[in-house]
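Review form for a predicted model. The reviewer records the input and the model, then writes brief findings.
Reviewer: anonymous (R2)
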Amino acid sequence: MGSSDAFDARDRARRAPDHNWRTPFQPRHGQIWPWRSRLGKAGVLGCGQAYLGDVVERWAPPDLPARWRFAGPHFVGRRAEFDALEEAWTAVESGLQQVVFVGGEAGAGKSRFIAEAGRMLHAHGATVLLGACVAELGAPYQPFIDPLRALHAAAATEVAASLDLLTGATSQPDNVEVTNRQVLYDAVCEVLRAASRQHPLVLVLEDLHWAGKTSLGLLAHIAQHGGDMQLLCLASHRSAPPDRSDALVTTMTQLYRLDGVRRIDLTPLGAEDIAEYVIAETGAPVGRARAASSILRDQSGGNAFYLREVLRDVEAHGGLDGLDPLLAVTPQTVRDLYAGRLAELDEECRLLIEIAAVIGADFSVPVLAHVAGLEVPVVLAALDRAGAVGLVGNLANDSSSYAFDHVLGRQAILDLMQVSAVPRTHARIALTLEEGFANEPNRIQRIAHHYASARVLGHAPKAVQYLREAARLARDRLAHHEAGQAFARAANLAEGVADRDDLRLLAAESYRDAGAFALARDLDRAVVVGGSPVNRLRAAVAYEDASWRIGHLGFDAAELLTQALSGSNVPDIDTTRITAIASLGRALRYSGDAERGGLLVAKALGLARENGDPATLAHALECSIIAMPRPSTAGAAALLCAELVALGRAAHSPALVVHGATVLAMIGYLTGDPERHESARAETASAAAATGASFHLMQSGCYEWARAFASGDVGTADAISSRLMRLEDIGELGEMSERLSMQTFVLRREQMKLDQVRPLITGHEDVAAHWAPGLLALYCELGRRDGARRALTWLVEHDLEPFRASATWPATIAFVSEAVAWLDDRRCAAALRPVFAEFAGCNLAVGPLLAVFGSADRYLGLLDSVLGREGAEDLLRSAVAMDQRMGAPLFVGYDLAAIVDHLRRSGAPTRRIEAARREAVATASQLRTPRLRGRVGLDGPHSGPEGLTFRELEVLRLVAEGLSNRQLSERLFITENTVTNHVRSILQKTGVANRTMAARYAAEHGLLDVGP
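Model under review:
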């Protein structure tokens, strides 16, 4: 039925049933899975031919997975689910990959449903590959290992090497080139794509609620990059607590927005399905089966596993007449049922089944025999007896491996064991695997798990030894998150303080490499609190390193580093202390204490040069340049960057090159040097690709984004932002969203998509509780003039020094200047103009190019225009020249629009205004940027209701305020005749008769205020 992974002994020799049979009272379910004719298309795609691209020359697909070759209990129901699966398969046949998440509670029948689908697809020509996760400590990429080993023969040599590393078939040699997990993921996609050209593929991944981060990352990569494969991926998972996986839920949420990703949730079996099952299993008449089905549905809740177990028990105790309508099936009920079956077995068989349950859901007969101290024939005979009562089933034709009929059944047996017997059995299994069975899958991980489970018997040191080894193997395969978990588990078992701290530091390092910065910081903090003086320094340095990468302010890191340094008697010239001093300097600069931080970084740099250790010098240089360079420090910072890049090249360290080249490219943008910027940007991209580290790829990607955004290609910029958000190993999704929030805001602003947040903004928010410049910019874009005035006044009246010390200071200059110009606030312009002057002749960006704003002279020119200064137009023309030199047509458009506004404000002749306007319109018309187009008055798909242009919306708002045509002319710096034309157009487009009705229209449509 749709219920289990069962391999019932009495049906073992029986082939899978004919799925077209139906009971007399049940109509046939249409044309379920009519694939025979459609799968014939596989021949056109290369079935049996040599055309498989560069990867596959000739490949024999594997047979049906062994565990599916024997029929279990009858399968019933799931008609709607099969219909959904058929839709997915139709898409696969047309060449569109599909990923289907099959969810349900434990025992809902996920594995059996997938097995039935897999059997039918295999019978009609599809290649079926099966992999599964394990509840215990598994190997990295666990569910992909068996499928990829089956595909190994289909891989070219260079792809096969990556597959061997991923599956653990080979260790990574010292000179291996694969340091980037992206290479491994790409290799998997290559071999899947090539194999799917020969036969459509069905990739089954069972029990993903137990999957590690790397497995979920690989699945996400396949979903995102395998769109042209003939591949159906079926991924089962438990969707209900306590088994539901938060990591899997996050992955599924991110993937659901992709085409070709869908979910099927198995609902409880209905009464008709249960009646059909009763008939098939017991031969009962239709009427009797229907009567029993209602009771069975209430007892089992429609859970397929519970249904099967209850019916088995009923059959063993008198049949349906003995059905107790008051019985409610619970986990305790299942344990009682299994206790009864175990009682039917002899002592030897019962002990064997208990040992097998401790070994795992699947178990090797030779290992079981060795642990039990019995001959293999004796063990096989006992397993036959256990199979006869529905406990286990054979997995292999040679009877070398067996499995429990369901993981819930195995758990029931574990729950029934004596508590003291469990750790003793774990210890015996660990010793057996340790002494032999070198070819057992996941041997090191399993030994570690069993020794850890036997720690109460004094096996903790052995557990730590093998957990270390498991972690090393995971790091070798670039599975850093799993390595961190193994190291952390070992640390919890370590008996000595030094060993524990060393393991915590190793775990934190792995978690940092995996992007799990919160976990890394927790472990580092624990070492700072209770470790040795040297380890405290190491941990505090590591804590700070995990903090700045995700944009955290340095207050906590500075406090921990200060404590570690004050509690250590390590001399200043020691490399560990130098490193800590440099990190403290960086942390202080991130927390706003630029002066003290700069002094400490300079001290560390001098000590590092004196010490002569290249790694220490590199760290000091990194800490020296990481802060956002300012115009006054750009020259000195560029020299340090060049030194770090040279050091990285000499050490063959692309990571050092990235760090230096990233800031060097930033300096090139800041100073308006396109040659330096482009050269350093290209070196950043090359070095980031070489490291493969997500943090470096994010930095390189931001430079791509900035180039696309500044050129006005907001579509490409949007795609790059989405790609950056999907990067693995760079922090949690919330951390990435926060880090890229500035980028997201300016992009959504340019796309005119900020209206989505309008209902959430009242205009009365507490300015002090938010980042004031950002709130001010949002008020301006939403046309909240009163809120903008309040936020701007708050900024001017408060100390700006914290904002100046922040890396977001350039964005503050941009947002505040735009607001001052929109509000025409001379008082604020006069107060802010001297503060912003340091960036004259430069560009504004939040580094490393997370967001770019173009020439600072535009913003200074806006302020000067409001102040009525003569040099305003010169500054705006200077901005045009800068943005043209940097290849930024989007910003050129805004420069030209600012010139038009300035000419109107200053009362320039109409012909000059019109000439400037035409130039601005000509530039904006070449770009698909809604905000800029609206800014210069172009009509377009993003104009207001009834096709109102931006200028008409502005006029309508002022009409609603009661301004006359003359007042409108003075406010907007246009002629009264032009105002009259705008008003006439507004009345025509809105279909109203007069200005009063136009004002009412504006109120009804939420147009009473329009942003800049």
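Findings: Strands lie at 98-104, 127-132, 201-206, 231-238, 261-265, 362-364, 392-394, 401-404, 843-846, 851-855.
Further findings: Residues 515 and 730 are 4 Å apart (CA to CA).
Recommendation: see findings above.
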